[in-house]
Amino acid sequence: MTDRVGILARLREDIATARAHDPASRSAIEVVLAYSGLHAIWGYRVMHGLWVAGFRLPARLGSQLVRFLTGVEIHPGARIGRRFFIDHGMGIVIGETAVVGDDVMLYHGVTLGGKAPRGAPRGAKRHPTLQDGVTVGAGAKVLGDVTIGAWSAIGANAVVTKDAPAHSLIVGIPATFKPLSHETADAARGVHDWHDWHI
Question: pLDDT by residue (tens digit) across 149-184?
Fold first, then answer.
C-alpha cells in the first residue's frame, strides 16, 4: 500500500476513483451524495483512525453505525489501501485482519471472511490479503488467511480458500485459477491509471 496523502487529496482521489469505475456516474456531487460504498469507505477511515489510536470500543460501535447506514461492514482493524472502490456496496463484509491493497474493487455481496485453525492465538491473521488491483465479483467469498496476487479477478459467487498468483482469473466453488488473458489484465490496469482521472 502506498504512502499517506492529505485528507482533501484523498477525498478527491476517492471521488475520482468512483467516477472512473462507474460509467453511470454523472457528476462528482452525485457520487458524494448517493454512493453508499464511498460513504462506507469514508466511515471506515474515521473508525480505523480511532482503532489505531487505541479507541477500540468507539471504533467498533462507529463501524456498526456505518454498517447500519450503508449496508457495508468493514471492521476498523482491517487495513485498506488507496483508490479502493465498492460498487453498489450492500452486503459487503471485511474482517478484522483483512489487508486490501491499492486499486482494489469489490462488487456487492463480497465477504472477506475469517477462518483460523483450532487453537490459533487471539489476533492471529485469519482474513484474506488482496494485493493491488484485485477485482472481486458479486457474491464472492474469500475465506481465511489467503493471498490473492496483484491484478487478479475473482468471479461472481466464487468461494476462494487458497492462494492465487498475480494476474489470475479465479472462479468456481471451490475456486480454481488460471492466468488472466493479456487483454483483460491490460483493461483492468487501464481503469486504474489514476493520473488521468478528473473530477
Answer: 999 999 999 999 999 999 999 999 998 898 887 666
H-helix or E-strand containing 106? strand 105-107
Q: Are 107 and 156 in contact (CB under 8 A)?
A: yes
The DSSP element (H or E) to which 115 belongs, if any, is: none
Cα distance between residue 151 and residue 119, in whole Å: 33
Q: What are phi and psi for residue 170, nearest 5 degrees?
A: -120, 115
Mean pLDDT of all residues in 175-197: 64
d(CA 119, CA 54): 26
Residue 84 CB partners (closer than 8 Å, separation 6+): 17, 41, 100, 102, 103, 104, 105
Determine how β-strand 153-154 pairs with β-strand 168-171: parallel
The model's confidence at residue 9, banded by pLDDT at 50, 70 and 90, is: confident
* Residue pair 31/25 in contact by the 8 Å Cβ criterion: yes
In contact, 188 and 153? CB cutoff 8 Å:
yes
Element (H, E) at 189: helix 182-191
Q: What is the pTM of this model?
A: 0.85
Between strands 176-179 and 168-171, the pairing is antiparallel
CA 196 vs CA 28, 58, 92, 109, 199: distances in Å: 16, 38, 29, 30, 10
Determine the Cα–Cα distance for residues 35 and 110; give it in Å rounded to an integer.
Answer: 17
